[in-house]
Design goal:
Length: 328
Amino acid sequence: MSYNLIFELGRKVLNQEPLTFEEAIKLTQIEESDIPILLGIANKVRITFTGNQVDTCEIVNARSGSCSEDCKFCAQSAHHDVKIDSYPLMSQNQILQAARRAESHGAYRFCIVTAGCGMKNDPDFQQIIESIKQIGCETGLERCCSLGILSPDHVKALKAAGITRYHHNLETSKSFFDQICTTHTYDERIETIKNVKAEGLEVCSGGIIGLGETWEQRVELAFALRDLDVDSVPINVLNPVKGTALEGQLPLRPLEVLQTFAIFRMILPNKILRYAGGREQALGELVPLGFLSGINGMLIGNYLTTTGRGATADLDTVRNLGLKPIAE
């Protein structure tokens, strides 16, 4: 019976013993009727290792579209024909106003996101640095950014400006990455994460499920994140966008999405697992169940090119489950 396996591995994790890859794979093979048991055990692991606080973050799409990279899921890629708002870097005042709105919404963190491969020879980098400093002077927010691939010098400059955590998704497993992106490598992403960690900054790195990867590749991603010892793991669920290369990808079933959250929690018991894009489309009315499956962080408000449920609805869900947004 698979529920015996779930209890056995749950006790192991609660005893602070890491799961092996083979054990995690067994959790992908459990009977569907036992998935709710797995969710309950993952919830117990979350409570034991991270308590009832939920890390809240709001983002701003500070520079949108015309991205040189060919990531198959992305509406902002210049390789795709998607109608989105495309614009250069926002002014410092526009970014500051977005940060102030995020703080008023109940965000603990604020993340500046820009489309593009990275900051090499990017003329906007210094203006981004100035925006980070200004947000630090005029709000109480923790400051994050997501600017693509960075050199050690970029990381040093961001740290000096007040960034405490850097976001850089691996997106998927190494064995599947070249099926999703060919204009830069998985190892370049790993190098940026190592550069960030070398400066003592926290790392926010996760990926997208439902790209067409296998269960084994999904678990491979979780173990790569564990090996890198990242601090926050955003889990997006593919929301296929018309005009992208993955517009016809079939959606994951809601129970599989929740099972994925639970398995990530079992592999990463003491990390922030963050609800990110696609959850509304993938789960609908089952969104609250994510927090009972191991999730303890979330993006509130809107995403890069799509709208969310709104910060008020997001935080109401958290409070109604007896959880506490970290900013309160």
